Each structure stands twice: as structure tokens, then as C-alpha cells.
Amino acid sequence: MDKITVTRSVMPDRAVFDTYVDQIFKTGWLTNNGALVQELERRLSAYLGVKNIVLVTNGTLALQIAAKLLGLQGEIITTPFTFVATASAMVWDHLRVRFADIEKESLNLDAAAVEQIITPRTCAILPVHVFGNPCRVEQFEAIAGKYDLKLIYDASHAFNVGYKGQSLLNHGDISTLSFHATKLFHTIEGGALVIKDDDLCAHARKMINFGITGPETIECLGINAKMNEFQAAMGLSLLDKMDEAIARRKLLCLQYDEYFKNRIIRQAYPEECTRNYAYYPVIFPDESTLKRAQAKLEAAGIFPRRYFYPSLCDLDFLVNVCETITSKNISRRIMCLPLFPDLTHEQCHAISHMVLSVLEDKQ
Ligand SMILES: *Cc1c(COP(=O)(O)O)cnc(C)c1O
């Protein structure tokens, strides 16, 4: 068998990609809010069902810009069960990160645990829709309202996830996306902000280009976070393939589900959500079983990934003040199995059976 990795970047049809690249060569316009970036913004806003979307260089900058746009200072509460950038982007910008624990069924930030650690210095909550599973948005909205806090969702995994009949991205003051090559939809490197307020969105557009608004005007503090035309060309040529890619992932997830039903724990999803099937995480009974499954798969040239391990509360450069027991516990036991549109049903079968054989072998 060829080497199978946890994911494989979707590639566009070469001819389609080339037509966009031809446009770039014809105009010589490479970056600074070019025609392709504008077109991708329009198409994403329609595809995702969101009003304001601003494309940026990557998902980490999207988080940093969100924090700046909302004028955050002081403490921000987030989950330790996420990719490191969720927290490190905040620490980088001198916010104090405080971790609250996660729910053991959904693996998302626990709203009740958040409420317990709110202090007068708390300025915002930053939940993550982990693996594309919608957070308890109603609860977070209620808490944010009650304590007058800003609400940012790291929606890096939640491209095209629907909740109660609309885009999940419409929740919070801002939702951020990552379009990194390993994500469901990508622009090689890239990201976006979905911004509820129109004025804030206008401000974001200035902020991503150094605050420059004219040849001789620099209106506000900014940074360089512009998406370039080649990134947009990649996104535009992939967007048409997304429905098909998600449908294919769904079939593979249903196949995994069939094998693992009643035999291995998986994340619980709320009702009334339409999933994007971005990841396939499984939770082992303990770390040693996980390691045995990992070793068995790797010996066969199959490379799952331990997302997310370690739990961020164990990183000493990200200050922690509360015990996040569930996050630590889950982090040690969870692993994402290979999932991408080109994975075959035979490969899915082989992977599942290797995992099940390890579970059944009582060592
Ligand atoms: C990928 C990811 C990011 C960072 O996005 P980049 O585009 O790689 O900068 C942030 N948060 C989460 C949850 C992610 O998975």
C-alpha cells in the first residue's frame, strides 16, 4: 500500500487553475485586493451564507486581527483542546490566555467552566468549533451578553458547517477561518474573518493593509495580512469541487462509523447541524491502546495524527491557572484517522480493522 497520511490536500483541476493563473499573467496584478481575491470573497460569501468576509494571509493572522479589531486587552478565555495557534496568537499579542475545560462528549469549550473563571479583567471568550463540531453558541452568547464580553469563534475547522438552518459562522462578533493546505478548503496558506458588524468589517479591510486608505493616507494602525492572487486562484479553482469533496468524506465517515459503532468513542454532535466531515477523531480507552494502534498503523505505512496532543494547558509558555482535567485526559487518548476524498473504501476498511484488532486484543 502507498503511504497514507492523516490528510491529503485537495488539488484543483489543472486546467481550471491555469485559467485563473492566465488572468494573473495578463494583468500582472499579484496582490493588494486584486480581482481574484475580490471574486473569491464574493463567491465564499454566497457559498457559506455569510454577509461580510475578509480574506487574509493565514488563519493565525485572522485570529490576531480579530483581537485587534475588538480592541481586546487583559484576559481571554479559550479551550486548551485545539491547535496551538488559537492560544499562541493571543499570547503573542500580549493577551493573557486562561483555559477553561472542555465537555467530554462534544470536546468543545464548556460554557459553565468558562463562566466560573470570568474576572473583571476578562475581555473576551474564544471558543473553537473543534473538528467542525458546533459549540453551544446560545450559551456563549448568553454569557457574553451577561458579562459584556466579546465573542470570537475560531472556526478554522468549521468551513461550511450549518447550525439551525444557517451558517455556523454567523455566530459571535467574529468567526475566523483557516485555509491552510491541510484544511477542508484551502488557498495553500490563507484565512478569513467573518465579521457581523459592517463598520468593523470596513475597519478590518484597512487593518490588513497597514491602515493605508489612499496614496497619501494612513488612517489607522494596521499590519500586512493581504491574501495574494495566486492564493485566491487556488481557492477559486477548488471551490467548485467542495460539495463533491464533502459528499465523498461523508461516505467515508459513514463507513468508519459502521465499523466503530458501539466499539470506540467518538465526538457527539448536536442535532440540527450539517457537518463538513473535516476530521475523523476516535477516542481510545487509554493512551497505551492508542499508541499500540498508532504503531500498528504506522508499520503498515498509515500515519494517523494525535490531534490535539499535548493539551495546551501543558505548555509552560502558555500560562494556565485552572485545572483542565478533561482536556488533558482526552488529549492523551484521541487520534485522527486518515480522511480525504481520495481515500478508498478498501483503505478505510483496512484502517478500521487494524484499529479494531488492537482494541480487541487485551494486552
Ligand atoms: C489551522 C488552525 C489555525 C491556524 O491557521 P493557519 O492558517 O495555519 O495559520 C488556528 N486554529 C485552529 C483551530 C486551526 O486548526
What descriptors fit this protein?
single chain, 363 residues, alpha/beta, seven-stranded mixed beta sheet, three-stranded antiparallel beta sheet, 16 strands, globular, binds pyridoxal-5'-phosphate
Q: Care to describe what's here?
A:
With 363 residues, the protein is an alpha/beta fold. It has helices at residues 14-27, 35-48, 59-69, 85-92, 111-116, 137-147, 198-207, 229-239, 242-260, 287-299, 325-333, 345-360; strands spanning 4-5, 53-56, 75-78, 96-99, 122-126, 150-154, 162-163, 166-167, 174-178, 191-195, 212-214, 217-218, 273-274, 281-283, 302-303, 334-336. Helix 1 packs antiparallel against helix 8 and helix 9 packs parallel to helix 12. The longest helix is centred in the C-terminal third of the chain and has 19 residues, at 242-260. The structure holds pyridoxal-5'-phosphate. Pyridoxal-5'-phosphate binds next to helix 3 and helix 4.
Strand element count: 16
Q: Averaging pLDDT over every residue, what do you get?
A: 96
Note the gap between the termini: 27 Å
What structural class do the secondary elements suggest? alpha/beta
Shape: globular
- What is the helix/strand order? EHHEHEHEHEHEEEEEHEEHHEEHEHEH
Give the biggest sheet: 7 strands, mixed
Please work out how many helical segments DSSP would assign.
Answer: 12
How large is the radius of gyration?
21 Å
Strand order of the largest sheet: 2-10-9-6-5-3-4
Distinct ligands, ions and cofactors found in the model: pyridoxal-5'-phosphate
Helix content: 25-40%
What amount of the residues lies in strands?
5-15%
Give start-end ranges of low-pLDDT stretches.
none
